[in-house]
Amino acid sequence: MEDKTKKLNLKREVGLMGAVSLIGGTMIGSGIFMTPQTVLYTIGSPGASLVVWAACGLLVILVSFCYAELGTVIRESGGEYIYILRTSGPVVAFMLIFSSVFFVRPAGLAGMALGFAQYVVAPFYSDCPPPVLLVKCVAAAAIIVLAIVNCLNVRFSMSVQVFFMVAKVLALAVIIVGGVVMLIRGHTENFENSFENTNLGINPIGIAFYQGLWSYDGWNNLNYVTEELKRPEVNLPRAVVIAISLVTGLYLLVNVSYLTVMTPKELMSSTAVAVTWGNKVLGSWGWIMSVAAALSAFGSLNGTFFSGGRVCFVAAREGHMPDILAMAHVHRLTPSPALIFTTIVSLVVLIPGDFQSIVNFFSFTAWFFYAITLSGLIYLKIKKPELPRPYKVPIILPILVLIAAIFLVLAPIIDDPQIEYLYVSLFIFSGAIIYVPFIHYKLCPGLLTKLTVFLQLFLEVAPAEKNL
Question: Percentage of residues in the chain with pLDDT exceeding 90?
Fold first, then answer.
């Protein structure tokens, strides 16, 4: 046998269209059909809710520009994890991956799956809320189906993403056109005194942003798959600008349409806002909106799966997760062990999952690590200006976004402290305690080696190299 063994690479198969679809198709998911009523209820007035949606879009565009620079300086897959590892060190990076693998990513998948399931069963329960067990079973089935799709083929997964991206944009276009028609007919009464009863407390603003930003989640997905992106120095910033600008415009117009068709009270009391909209505008054809919302959530779930498995994969490659998770299928070239692991944890999180709680705790944890990532960009700009930067932003931009991220992390705690945020914080910092025995001193290596060999043979996987 030769000493040198040929290793695998994940192929660069994601072009500009796939990149735009991955970002936009993941962002436009269950959020725009599930969170408008919570944003309105929390902030208190239609006018302020539209301001929140616009501000969320602006914040996401600014932070994604910062990520575009990071993605062209550190041209590795893994998103926040790899950026924090290269700028803040292994302990903080492990805290991120521990939180991400065991909570943030699975919670995101569970939340999207619940949104998908809610709309799938909504037409069958028009007069009452659907049974919780049924909703969770449908959500679990969606997670398992997409796990299989993503394990089988990268190109097929991208085709699924592009198809659902087109379907969901068409669905939003129907809502927008319906709203425009109603506006032309003079239905503007819901916009009179539109800022009346606005809640200007720190906590309501923070929670409204959490709910709004949930709908924009997925803006950073391309940074997780940089090694599979064709010409990342060109396509990464280009895809970000196209996708996020498109989504922000669509979201604002959709919310205007919701508020044109429904009174604020009707909107806040709806469990499936697109179905309520469809019943009022399309009449007996209202069920079409339920199908459209379900397709939208399914496409978003697929995009999150595609990128989520890569985070686990990159962390394992850096020695922060078991070696088996850094392997790819020898024929299909997909990181199937990481995808299977993500699926299992997502199904566990789904069992006790409640949509609104998932959104709030997901956003709190995510923006905590976004703040650390942005600090790393500021550090690179000051300490390592000589690094090649095909794309760069002025230093004031990451500073402004960092201030916004700190506000989003602290806002719900300062104004209305809840014990759950303490639990989430303890969970994040517990990663540092686990790092010392299991990563630094590598306890139980023998048991892990035997398990790795067994799973490697069973799953037909082999180690994969970086694709730089």
Answer: 20
Is the per-residue pLDDT at 1 higher than 50? no
Judged against a pLDDT cut of 70, whether residue 21 lies above it is answered with yes
The whole-number pLDDT of residue 372 equals 94
Which amino acid type is present at position 252? Answer: L
Angle (CA) 417-419-421 rounded to 5° is: 75
Q: pTM, whole model, 2 decimals? A: 0.82
